[in-house]
Amino acid sequence: MFTPPRCPNRDCPRFTDPGPKFYTHKGWYQPLCRPHPVPRFRCNTCSLGFSRQTFRSDYRDHKPYLNAAVLEHLCDGLGFRKTARKVGLTRRCLELKARKHSRTAALLDDNLKERIAVCQPKGPDGVLRVHFDEFETYETRRNTRPITIAVAIESTTRLHFAAVAAPIRPRGKMTESRRAAIEREEALYGPRRNRSRAACRIALGKAAKL
């Protein structure tokens, strides 16, 4: 039997302190995408109605039965267009699903790291040792759209703490054709800013929380 872990209303006191029997059972409903009924509940404090589905990662999803195939294809390295064709979605719908999966995975990642950090081996002063570095790659065009990726890992176990991508300005040898390509893109999108410092702050900040 499913038991709601908390009230989903962030403004309700039962969100952080649910306590025993903070809810009342309010029957069931039959979803079209599942063979079994889903229980409904109501918070006794704020009167918000919710169901078991409210706490699932596929809450309000269209065609949730495609989620596993979407994840499998994207994790295998397939592009959005090809994945959309294989599972029978439009590219826009696939993009929305991918963004939602990314947010869910990021929250899970943060929760697991908080638990793992407690068990990590520490240095003689009792703190975690962090290795930090950046590497460069590009998005779409090597000559005009370079990006940096700031990476922070735990020194002993190589536990991955953070990897933050950010745009940087093109640099290196400037040929006439490359300079012209950069000028064309700046005319369309504006000057490309260097966000390397911001990426480093975010990556180190995530490691500092642990």
Q: What is shown here, in short?
A:
This protein has 210 residues and is of the alpha+beta class. The protein has helices at residues 67-75, 80-87, 91-119, 176-189, 196-208; strands spanning 23-29, 38-43, 49-51, 130-138, 146-154, 160-167.
Which regions have little confidence, pLDDT < 50, spanning 5+ residues?
none
Please write the string of helix (H) and strand (E) elements: EEEHHHEEEHH
Tally the helices: what do you get?
5
Outline type? extended
Order of strands in the sheet with the most strands? 1-2-3
**Class by helix and strand content?**
alpha+beta
Overall mean pLDDT stands at 88
Cα distance spanning the termini: 35 Å
Would you report the number of β strands? 6
